[in-house]
Write a structure and sequence with these properties.
This protein is of the alpha/beta class. The chain is built from 16 helices and 17 strands. The strands form four sheets. A six-stranded parallel beta sheet has the order 3-2-1-4-5-6. A hairpin with a 2-residue loop joins strand 11 and strand 12. Helix 5 crosses helix 7 and helix 8 packs across helix 9. The relative contact order is 0.07.
Length: 429
């Protein structure tokens, strides 16, 4: 008998990978470990009959002739499978995305560093053109989303995203996925959160309250980002960086901040990760926890000192300027030529107001495109000074209908800040 199994405390990636193997290897029986995650237990309480799954207690190891292991690379993580470890001539097939700590050596190994093991199996399912039912697709999507934080973790890859699209094409139900990935905390995550509350270091820097939570955790925890967010809210901090060293010698670095705090995106990007000013994450390999903490602390200080000002990223205002003597039709033509949604009305450099897409629409609807721009411009719009920080400008951009912030000093238009300027700055493009 050929079986497929995975690690104890089975999560959705492990369950999805087991079910995928029953599709790729006809006749294979999925053996469910005795201990499974609460969300998986709730899912199987309703859907188990749709899949070929048997509990571990019903398995006789003497009947096993071939073993498929998914989402696990160590015999100790399996549920009472040690009796197979020393068996000669046992065929072992491995599908996994964990690259370190391997003790299960298979005859065939499919081990690559992607966000979720199910992604590797889905690529093979797609290559073979193996049929996938909508409920299978839904479970497989749960596997990808659970292990990648809905594609927000830094471990997520373009391959995970591609397989997400493949599953949606095959009828995966996002409503079901959302229901079983609700933001609840199980016992293992509760313990991590308790440790964060007890051991995190909180300090003040330039009027900001910042927390650093650094601690070892078990591999497989999928809600660390949520814990960091909850910790920041619970303690009322401006920013928090969580540093979680897994038993695979990897540190997950997760940052969360409010809009007026430090740029945690810059912190994690310096560690090889990704993010934006309010959120980001990175994976640091082969480095002691204390070393990662020291590096993060230095990067936080650097992020504070290197606050970017509007004058460093703003655009030349000339392409955005129109004269108050123009008609709405003439101003609209200039906007179209420059591919702008809005333009700024200036009289010899003095800023008067803004013409938005809404302004042009109103003029056209009322058949007044020949009217002066003065009758349609908005004189009161959000503006910034050249010395305003990019972070503050990012807040003000929410008040702009057309993604333009005039940079005004002594009533003179000296620059324009666009959404594009901010995007280039935020993501270091």
């Amino acid at each position: 008998m050929q079986i497929v199994t995975s690690h104890t405390n089975t999560d959705f990636d492990a369950l999805a990978s087991m079910v995928a193997c029953t599709c790729l290897y006809p006749g294979t029986v999925a053996i469910l470990p005795s201990h499974i995650m609460p969300g998986v237990k709730a899912f199987l309480a309703i859907h188990q009959d749709l899949y070929r799954i048997r509990p571990r207690k019903e398995l006789d190891l003497n009947q096993v002739s071939s073993l498929i292991v998914v989402d696990a690379n160590n015999w100790k993580r399996l549920d009472r499978m040690e009796g197979l470890a020393a068996r000669e001539n046992l065929e072992i097939i491995s599908w996994d995305h964990h690259m370190e700590g391997v003790t299960i050596n298979g005859n065939q190994e499919f081990r690559e560093e992607v966000g979720a093991t199910i992604t590797l199996l889905l690529e093979e399912i797609q290559r073979r053109d193996t049929p996938v039912t909508p409920m299978q697709a839904t479970l497989f999507l749960l596997g990808i989303y659970d292990d990648t934080g809905c594609l927000t973790f830094s471990s997520a890859t373009h391959r995970d995203a591609r397989m997400t699209a493949f599953l949606l094409e095959n009828g995966a139900d996002l409503n079901i996925v959302a229901a079983y990935l609700a933001d609840t905390i199980d016992d293992s995550h509760s313990q991590v959160f308790s440790d964060m509350l007890a051991n995190a270091r909180i300090f003040e820097m330039e009027g900001l309250k910042i927390g650093i939570c650094a601690q070892p955790v078990k591999s497989g925890l999928t809600m660390l980002a949520s814990l960091v967010s909850k910790y920041r809210e619970f303690k009322g901090l401006d920013a928090v960086v969580g540093i979680f060293l897994t038993d695979q010698n990897k540190s997950m670095v997760i940052g969360r901040a409010n809009s007026q705090s430090i740029d945690v995106g810059a912190v994690v990007r310096a560690l090889g990760g990704g993010g934006h000013p309010a959120a980001g994450s990175a994976v640091v390999k082969g480095m002691e926890l204390e070393t990662v903490v020291a590096k993060v602390e230095q990067l936080i200080q650097d992020a504070s000192r290197k606050e970017i000002l509007v004058q460093e990223i703003m655009s030349d205002p000339r392409r955005f300027m129109v004269d108050p003597s123009l008609t709405m039709a003439q101003a609209r033509k200039i906007a179209a030529q420059e591919k702008l949604k809005g333009v700024l009305v200036c009289d010899h450099g003095h800023f008067l107001g803004c013409l938005s897409a809404e302004s042009f629409a109103k003029a056209k609807k009322s058949a007044r495109m020949d009217a002066s721009v003065k009758g349609f411009m908005k004189p009161r719009v959000a503006v910034v000074a050249s010395g305003t920080t990019a972070r503050k400008a990012l807040e003000l951009m929410n008040l702009s209908d057309d993604g333009l912030l005039p940079v005004v000093e002594q009533n003179l238009l000296i620059g324009v800040l666009t959404r594009g300027n901010l995007i280039l700055h935020i993501y270091d493009i």
